[in-house]
Design brief:
By secondary structure, the protein is of the alpha/beta class. It has helices at 6-12, 22-41, 47-56, 121-125, 189-193, and strands at residues 18-19, 59-60, 65-66, 70-72, 78-80, 85-86, 90-93, 98-100, 105-106, 111-113, 115-116, 128-131, 134-136, 141-142, 147-148, 153-154, 159-160, 165-166, 174-177, 182-186, 194-196, 199-200. It starts with 5 loop residues before the first helix and ends in a 5-residue tail after the last strand.
Length: 205
Amino acid sequence: MMTVPQQVLDVLHSGDVYLWDGELMDVAQQEQRDILRRTNELPAVDPERERLLRTYFAEMGENTWVEPPLHANWGCSTHLGNQVYANFNLTLVDDGEIFIGDHTMIGPNVTLVTTGHPIRPDLRERLAQFSEPIHIGRNVWIGANVTVLPGVTIGDNAVIGACSLVTKDIPANSVAVGSPCRVMREINEHDNEYYWRDRRIPVDL
């Protein structure tokens, strides 16, 4: 079970701007960081690593795999579905909640950012911040080096091209790419026959 007090989670997930409360948050975050450090030090196939990750995350579904190293602010704000695969160097700025649906695949060096800071300089000096949740649907493929910003929803089956900066919602069943990320097209009949460019899907698949 997670060790982060509910009072801390209530502040992180409030949706309002708030000031960092060191007395309330520092110890809880350090405990989470200690768990993360231990997971990254263990061999990837060590059963203890999976046990620690299930303690670390808010939820972690069956047959889900996160390649080390993993980087995260908290861990306890991230919900992973079943059969999720995340490649190495996944970074979760998860002061706010992150929801990742079943069968989603995440490429290397992806960053999911739920948190920002006010434009007003005096508030930043006081360590003010805010968080908006990220929702990633079922069977999404996120390419290498993608960054997803606060409040974004990515619909089921969507494909996000490598190196994209996702600043707005992406609808289901679409291919999107760019900085900022934009929808290029819907997934279509061509994709039923070709897996990449002019390469046909083998008939026995």
